[in-house]
């Protein structure tokens, strides 16, 4: 269980609280949420354009950008200016990143490399393709061990 | 959203997984072969000849399932010798290396990868090329499976999986599961509590009174 102190809560003064508490208070209509400073149209446009330009992954402002966007836009869209544009921008960035991930997975498989390093990926993206990729790599590994019938083979010559 | 149980997957190497249903079905696939010696009174069992007393003469061509071929094949090859089915032969191997994506692997024997891996058990001078072809086919078809499985949400996927063999279909399903889970999360269904699939089956059976 989490433990800690929060506050003091004075009306009209901004306070930092964990997201779950913020959402809860907002649902009870006891507070107004202030969006994080990266959740702003120009900043997100910059990130999206950079993502489209670069071949590698850009560092995202928060490792939980997808989750935060979803929560804040679902529960507190009235506190976030231009919420719809933000939703579209984040979705565009997500799509670009997923496409890059797939491209890199494909070239990894084609060249049969043993090791790959991908910076700046968030957990959400990894989980979306993770199961598929690990299963496919498993199969590939087994097919590759077929090529060397060295120690695996069981031959009995009497 | 998570599975109630995990089925045992295919072995996919030189060894099969004993408990895997996929492997059991795969080893039922037939293999062309030749009887090296006379097989007395087995004509009926192997599908040739009407009476139970007939024997198979030496040198006759047979189609035997893989499990039988593996059992009867020993290093001196006295009982049966096996030939490669045509899709693992030279002609088809060049088709695969030209463009593996157009081949209908389901029609070619729905267990192309598994069966091919098992074929490497029989001594055959072409084994390295067969192993290499199987691997390369998998690699070239990988991209298409990935793209189609991750982009088809809530659609009828029968057209997409029609040309995949069983191994690829399992991969496709894994990709779809990932996609569905993500969409579920996005819609907010991930935080709703739903009955597990095991428990839903319990409800269909009525509890009878145990005490009289």
UniProtKB/TrEMBL annotation, chain A:
Name of the molecule in the record: GINS complex subunit 2
The domain of life is Eukaryota
Provide this UniProt record's keywords sorted from A to Z: DNA replication, Nucleus
Can you say where in the cell this protein is located?
A: Nucleus
Identify the InterPro entries for this entry. Answer: GINS_A, GINS_bundle-like_dom_sf, GINS_Psf2, PSF2_N
Tell me the Gene3D superfamilies matching this sequence.
1.20.58.1020, 3.40.5.50
Residue span, GINS subunit domain: 38-142
Record's Gene Ontology CC terms?
GINS complex
The similarity annotation says: Belongs to the GINS2/PSF2 family.
The DNA replication complex GINS protein PSF2 N-terminal domain is annotated at 1-34
In its UniProt record, which GO terms are filed under biological process? DNA replication; double-strand break repair via break-induced replication
UniProtKB/TrEMBL annotation, chain B:
The protein's matches in InterPro entries, at most eight in alphabetical order, are given as: GINS_A (IPR021151), GINS_bundle-like_dom_sf (IPR036224), GINS_Psf3 (IPR010492), GINS_Psf3_sf (IPR038437), PSF3_N (IPR055221)
Q: What is a single Pfam family found in this protein's UniProt entry?
A: PSF3_N
Print the keywords alphabetically: Chromosome, DNA replication, Nucleus
Every copy of the DNA replication complex GINS protein PSF3 N-terminal domain together lies at 20-72
GO terms under cellular component: GINS complex
Tell me where in this chain the GINS subunit domain is found.
89-185
Q: Where in the cell is it found?
A: Chromosome; Nucleus
Q: Which terms under GO biological process does the entry name?
A: mitotic DNA replication initiation
Fetch the SUPFAM superfamilies from UniProt: GINS helical bundle-like, PriA/YqbF domain
Q: What is its main location?
A: nucleus
Q: Which residues form the signal peptide?
A: none
Keyword presence, Acyltransferase = no
The answer, when asked if Nucleus is one of the entry's keywords, is: yes
Could you give the subunit structure recorded for this chain? Answer: Component of the GINS complex.
PANTHER family the record matches: DNA REPLICATION COMPLEX GINS PROTEIN PSF3
Q: Which family does it belong to?
A: Belongs to the GINS3/PSF3 family.
Task: Give a short account of what the protein does.
Answer: The GINS complex plays an essential role in the initiation of DNA replication. Required for correct functioning of the GINS complex, a complex that plays an essential role in the initiation of DNA replication, and progression of DNA replication forks. GINS complex is a core component of CDC45-MCM-GINS (CMG) helicase, the molecular machine that unwinds template DNA during replication, and around which the replisome is built.
| Protein's name according to its UniProt entry | DNA replication complex GINS protein PSF3
Q: Which organism's genome codes for this protein?
A: Eudyptes sclateri (Erect-crested penguin)
């Amino acid at each position: 269980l989490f433990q800690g102190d929060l506050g003091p809560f004075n009306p009209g003064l901004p306070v930092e609280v964990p997201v779950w508490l913020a959402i809860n208070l907002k649902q009870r209509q006891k507070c107004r949420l202030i969006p994080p400073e990266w959740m702003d149209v120009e900043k997100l446009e910059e990130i999206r354009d950079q993502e489209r330009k670069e071949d590698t992954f850009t560092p995202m402002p928060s490792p939980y950008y997808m989750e935060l966007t979803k929560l804040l836009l679902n529960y507190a869209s009235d506190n976030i200016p231009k919420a719809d544009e933000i939703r579209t921008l984040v979705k565009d960035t997500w799509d670009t990143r997923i496409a890059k991930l797939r491209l890199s997975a494909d070239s990894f498989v084609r060249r049969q490399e043993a090791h790959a390093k991908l910076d700046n990926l968030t957990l959400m993206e990894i989980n979306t393709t993770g199961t598929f990729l690990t299963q496919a790599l498993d199969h590939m590994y087994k097919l590759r061990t077929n090529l060397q019938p060295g120690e695996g083979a069981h031959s009995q010559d009497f | 959203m998570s599975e109630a149980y995990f089925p045992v997957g295919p072995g996919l190497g030189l060894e099969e997984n004993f408990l895997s249903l996929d492997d059991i079905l795969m080893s039922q696939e037939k293999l062309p072969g030749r009887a090296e010696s006379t097989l007395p009174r087995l004509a009926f069992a192997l599908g040739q000849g009407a009476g139970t007393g007939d024997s198979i003469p030496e040198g006759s061509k047979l189609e035997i399932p893989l499990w039988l071929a593996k059992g009867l094949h020993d290093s001196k090859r006295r009982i049966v010798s096996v030939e490669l089915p045509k899709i693992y032969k030279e002609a088809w191997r060049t088709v695969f290396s030209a463009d593996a994506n157009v081949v209908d692997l389901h029609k070619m024997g729905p267990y192309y990868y598994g069966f091919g891996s098992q074929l490497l058990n029989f001594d055959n001078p072409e084994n390295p090329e067969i192993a290499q072809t199987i691997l390369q086919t998998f690699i070239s078809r990988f991209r298409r499976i990935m793209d189609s499985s991750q982009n088809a949400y809530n659609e009828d996927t029968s057209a997409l999986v029609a040309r995949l063999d069983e191994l690829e279909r399992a991969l496709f399903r894994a990709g779809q599961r990932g996609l569905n889970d993500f969409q579920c999360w996005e819609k907010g269904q991930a935080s709703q509590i739903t009955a597990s699939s095991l428990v839903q089956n319990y409800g269909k059976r009525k509890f009878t009174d145990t005490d009289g």
